[in-house]
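Narrative summary of target 7.
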Amino acid sequence: MTGMWSLIKDIDHTKTTWALKVRVVRAYEVPPHSKGGETLEMVLHDAEGDRIHAIIKRPQIAMYRPVITENNIYAIRNFLVLDNYQTVKTTDHPYLIQFISKTQFIRDTKTVLPMMVYDFQPFDMLHAQRVVNDKSLIDIIGKVIGKGVVQTHISSGKTDRHMELTLADPEGNR
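Modeled conformation, tokenized:
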């Protein structure tokens, strides 16, 4: 980007004065759990479509929640850059950003960014991998052509239900 705005691909630990123009791809709340407290989390993308994960911890949630809207564009600065420690990754960026009380997050209605809210992956690419990374989220388009039975799993006293689905892409790949 021009001037003072950086690109997400350049974000690392080397400085603390990063400034970004980003689109909010997804925003969601994560309830408190055994590993940490309540957070408000976002997936952001820049003008080149690169993505980074952002986390807002409980003390700052009330400050930022009212101004965050998916698909809007924001100017952001004064944030922490941390190693991407997430078990399940929403982006492949090695870092994530964390808001602090001094983070500036201002809606920008003048900047135009492309709408790159999906990260579609072709079925062929998934089949070509020897081991599919089940810790990284991707987007696919497919038609449900088969379903398995509902299976119940109990872990740490919590009951989860799962069903295996078979998908086909427009070319018939499964």
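Residues 58-64 form the longest helix (7 residues).
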